[in-house]
Design a protein that fits this description.
five-stranded antiparallel sheet, about 400 residues, alpha/beta, six-stranded mixed sheet
């Protein structure tokens, strides 16, 4: 089997790697197949500093370990996609209360997002971008070839033939590129820490008042006041994100290439309409996570806008790190940079603290099927002293 390259996949592992003797793998120039990502922000009801938080979200740097697969739909108005009474009943939820977007629980929010993804044909738009769909409905393989390091001419030819490697290339492109496309739908809020601190203070004070020993009760009340003073300062940025993965498999691929595909040489209005209206492309819900970042008043002369913007961007970064750690399918890949010592270009921004363990995978071509496969060549552990910031 032919070895093409070697890279690192973030996974939970058990031991350390041995056997690399070369000094450099030239990881700085090595191309690799990243997962692709599109981000959508839920348009929440009014909250303090909403404009600053929203602008910071849209201006935040795109996560560099993912391909930017942004489409023209970047916002979601919940009022237009509220789950119906029937949908809530089918999901086993109480349907008597009147839903408000800021009062929805996780299941109700998920139903609302599902409605949005379906009605706005987000799956069709995501797939359309993969195949560089034009106004006349024509597709091409340029983006897939670029991200997958394929020869675009060969890919175009292979669509029309049945060669072993040709079909394997198309299959690889689907499994490794299109099938690893994600949509993260986020809801943000900006709240005064004093509100939450007062709730905690009230609860702690009630508990302390029940203490019979006067000395211990006094100490408990003073401790509650101290905690309140410490935690009531400033604000917090809250982000809740819902992670979705595009569904793409052999059966979907077959229908696409057989019934929907056309290029500039074969424009067919019926196929254009069929792609626009099909429900073939949908999403799998992976899960969600929440992140809170503290915003304190600046002591360095920064404006409130600068402080809030920085905290918002930090909050977004932490949110992606938590999603990556929580869900294996969303974990990022990165090439090894050197072989001795073994290094890779990831650090604190990706949430590393030291002690994390990684699989090292080698990309190979299976001589029997012509498909790309990955073989575990070893396992490595992060050295806390060597983590770049």
């Amino acid at each position: 089997m032919k070895i093409t390259n070697c890279y690192l996949l973030i996974l939970c592992c058990l031991c350390t790697l041995s056997g690399f003797s070369q000094k450099s793998l030239d990881g700085g120039n090595l191309k690799y197949r990243r997962s692709s990502l599109h981000r959508i922000l839920i348009q929440s009801e009014d909250f303090p500093k909403k404009e600053i938080v929203t602008n910071a979200y849209y201006n935040a740097p795109f996560p560099e370990k993912y391909n930017d697969h942004s489409i023209d739909v970047t916002g979601l108005n919940p009022e237009l996609f509220m789950p119906t009474k029937i949908q809530r009943e089918q999901a086993g939820l109480k349907s008597s209360k009147e839903l408000r977007q800021d009062d929805m629980n996780e299941e109700e929010s998920k139903l609302m997002i599902d409605n949005f993804l379906s009605k706005e044909k987000i799956g069709n738009k995501i797939v359309g971008k993969w195949f560089n769909r034009q106004e006349d409905g024509a597709f091409d393989m340029d983006l897939i070839a670029s991200r997958g390091q394929y020869d675009v001419t060969q890919l175009d030819v292979h669509i029309a033939n049945n060669s072993l490697r040709g079909n394997a290339l198309i299959s690889d492109a689907g499994e490794e590129l299109i099938n690893n496309t994600f949509v993260v739908v986020s809801k943000m809020n900006f709240v005064s820490n004093e509100i939450a601190a007062k709730i905690v203070l009230g609860t702690a004070s009630k508990v302390a008042e029940r203490i019979e020993n006067n000395l211990i009760r006094t100490i408990a009340l003073k401790l509650a006041d101290k905690i309140y003073t410490k935690t009531s300062e400033g604000y917090s940025v809250w982000t809740t994100s819902y992670l979705y993965k595009l569904n793409w498999n052999d059966s979907i691929s077959t229908v696409f290439y057989t019934d929907l595909w056309m290029d500039k040489k074969n424009i067919n209005p019926a196929r254009k309409t069929a792609f626009d209206t099909t429900n073939l492309f949908d999403f799998e819900y992976v899960g969600s996570d929440k992140v809170r970042s503290l915003v304190l008043y600046s002591k360095t002369g920064e404006s409130m806008e600068e402080v809030v913007s920085r905290a918002t961007i930090r909050n977004i970064d932490r949110n992606y790190v938590k999603l990556q750690k929580k869900y294996d399918v969303f974990k990022t890949k990165t090439p090894l940079f050197t072989g001795y010592p073994i290094t890779a270009k990831i650090g604190m921004k990706e949430g590393l603290k030291g002690g994390e363990k990684f699989d090292v995978l080698e990309q190979q071509i299976d001589s029997k099927t012509g498909k790309t496969i990955y073989v575990i060549r070893g396992r490595i552990k992060v050295d806390k002293k060597s983590i770049p910031s």
